């Protein structure tokens, strides 16, 4: 449809150019030129044959976009015949100007220069072959300037069109790059949320499972102790739901709410005493000790340290065995934060059972902040999860 409309427009333009050219051919005959004081020497009066030649010179305008240079060359024969038969040079110059503009606008520089040369040669041949009137050098210069100006206008349009196409292509590339960045950011965010959810669910569900087992064992013998265990389960469940709601809420809020969610309070080293108390209630004897002078930590390192302790204690609760003890050590050094979780449980025998998705996620967290993670059994028995986070500028 687009090609058909283009051909239709060019055909209509050819009809208009032919009509105007024939009208000028009829109106500006030798009598009219003499009446205006223009010297005419042997110029032939307009007739039907000359009008046909004028129309033939305008017909190629209909092909100006598809074959512009060929159409321009096709006008050379009728224009030369008009000059040879004495009708005067430049009778059909309007069609030549349109085709010269089309060549400059729709073809490369080499072809465009060839079109300009064809136009100049055609005018020169017409002026030499049919000297119907003596033209001054100034008139020839004006015609040459007009031809060059029309050619320059066509080249300017082509360059502008190419510039706009480049802008569109650049905008499309930027849009594709932005879409790729958005997909990568979303994938990273999904990975982060998956790690957060795993840490929250694994820890709280493990605590609730241990407490439920304890409540079941003492339900008949000591209902009050069972009631305390059930209350602890309820409290742990509420904590889990609150953390999960804060994490998943990011997925269904707008951008400003996302920013508020990202800036919202996250658990950190300051919350380790509450975590240790929760683990003691679940049946894991947990001791928390701090070494060095505590100081504010970067938010990412603070959260990663908390999640590491949470995952380490959760694994100790699951795998260390009954009566095991855990020690959490947070050491503040000048340029490093050392976080260590140790237990005296199963030890090397439980190494294969302690390498789950949670520890893999902790490894990713520690690597994200340039830390060093070591996980494995202790020489004298037990298991250790340790991470060292580098701190910059005294943080």
UniProtKB/TrEMBL annotation:
A Pfam cross-reference name: HATPase_c
TM annotation in the entry: 12-29, 49-67, 79-103, 109-130, 137-154
Record bears the keyword Repeat: no
InterPro entries: DUF7134 (IPR055558), HATPase_C_sf (IPR036890), HATPase_dom (IPR003594), Sensor_HK_TwoCompSys (IPR050482), Sig_transdc_His_kin_sub3_dim/P (IPR011712)
Record field: catalytic activity: ATP + protein L-histidine = ADP + protein N-phospho-L-histidine
Molecular-function annotations in GO: kinase activity
Alphabetized UniProt keyword annotations: ATP-binding, Coiled coil, Kinase, Membrane, Nucleotide-binding, Phosphoprotein, Transferase, Transmembrane, Transmembrane helix, Two-component regulatory system
Highest rank taxon of the organism: Bacteria
Residues covered by the Histidine kinase/HSP90-like ATPase domain: 300-393
Signal peptide: none
Coiled coil: 157-184
EC number: 2.7.13.3
Protein name (Swiss-Prot/TrEMBL): histidine kinase
Species this chain originates from: Nonomuraea marmarensis
